[in-house]
Amino acid sequence: xxxxxxxxxxxxxxxxxxxxxxxGPFLIDCGLFQGNPTEEFKNRQFPFTPAxxxxxFLTHAHLDHCGRxxxxxxxxxxxxxxxxGATRDLAQFILLDSAKxxxxxxxxxxxxxxxxxEEVMLPLYSEEDVLYAMRQFHPLSYDTPLALPDxxxxxxxQSGHILGSAFLELRAEGKRVLFSGDLGSPGRNVVPDPADxxxxxxxxxxxxxxxxxxxxxxxxxxxxxxxxxxxxxxDGNVVIPAFALERSQDxxxxxxxxxxxxxxxxxxxxxxxxxxxxxxxxxxxxxxDLDQETQALLERGEDxxxxxxxxxxxxxEQSKAINEKNGVIIIAGSGMCQGGRVQHHLKHNxxxxxxxxxxxxxxxxMTLGRAIVDGASKVHIFGETIAVKxxxxxxxxxxxxxxxxxxxxxxxxxxxxxLLINHGEAEVGAQLVGELxxxxxxxxxAQPGVVYQP
Length: 454
Ligand SMILES: [Zn+2]
Ligand SMILES: [Zn+2]
Fold this sequence. Notes:
Layout: E1 2-7, E2 16-20, E3 26-28, H1 41-44, E4 55-57, H2 63-66, H3 69-74, E5 81-84, H4 85-115, H5 127-134, E6 137-140, E7 146-148, E8 152-158, E9 166-172, E10 175-179, E11 202-206, H6 217-234, E12 238-241, H7 247-260, E13 269-271, H8 274-285, H9 292-299, E14 310-312, H10 316-321, E15 329-332, H11 342-349, E16 356-359, H12 368-373, E17 378-381, E18 384-387, E19 391-394, H13 404-412, E20 418-422, H14 426-438, E21 443-445
Parallel strand pairs: 3-4, 4-5, 5-6, 10-11, 11-20, 12-15, 12-16, 13-14, 13-15, 16-19, 20-21
Antiparallel strand pairs: 1-2, 2-3, 7-8, 8-9, 9-10, 17-18
This protein binds zinc ion (2 copies).
Residues 60, 62, 161, 182 line the site of one zinc ion.
């Protein structure tokens, strides 16, 4: 078996590994490179022939893991895409949304490019391409080995990152390799804990937060409660920019919990994101993949993601009507404020000292969210200068990624397996590798294009 990192080596996005094995080649994930416009070209071509790939194994529905699948099928890949049923259903919404955003971006960019006499840019794929790709998805259950030709077996294990997420176990030629995908932390409420890893010869493991320790979940929920209490006291609105997948559902769950415990007053909450609304519906539909207590709530006919006064606002008119309200919580995308409805809400609330913006997720460099978190006194939204007078809160314990202690604890269960560290910034990955080596483990940092063997 040979393993070649295609993306997410020395970086966080573009997750993809090429696996050469009997009956292959296979691809583990086929993610989009995100965040750096100058590296856009990396998304346009594959360093292999898509038609030669026999199957894709998909760990989860985040765009940095599934975002190039429609290109793969568009360029001749005809094999099955194996993932959990929840991942398939989430991926459909995520990819359709990505196609829509790409179209809007290219129309916007191309107006400028046309005026500048530059070559126009086409979206990577259309909504039709996504629907075409969806026909190749094959849902699998957790912990149930899939037998492939040439005595290859693949098993998906719960990775506790987002709904439907899995780490993969691939057995071929007498060797066993684990691919962590993205790993979550134990003790969260919406998704189950990550499963313990089985013994293996090689483990390819993510390192997103390999040098950080998150605040505890309880501390973070308390910070959320305090921040919301402050705004209610000041008689303003709360804007929470949130990723549509997992973070929005987590927030609804915790707000419901705080409400039920009478720890927050009953002010209205708006989930103002068509994508979040659709994804939350998928969470409800896949109760079997939720944490046991959350599953039990659904079985009793209760909704873990809603409560009295919680409103979903799919239409633009409903969204605009929120501008007239006061004393409300607005959860909207995008999570880093780079687009989407949250920009409208920031425009209407950021200049008001009685309002608050609560950041509950990572804000990448060069984004509007990062500028606000870093203390900008003014920002530009829709060509207008907006003063930042609202109170800004940053809560960092809601991460869906395992932190350093959790990664080390999970990896410590992999026995004598060799470790290949990917999906993290180069220094972060190198720190984790150093720490693993100091405990006697054989660990190295994945390099793009290099061949690794178990
Ligand atoms: Zn992920
Ligand atoms: Zn990822």
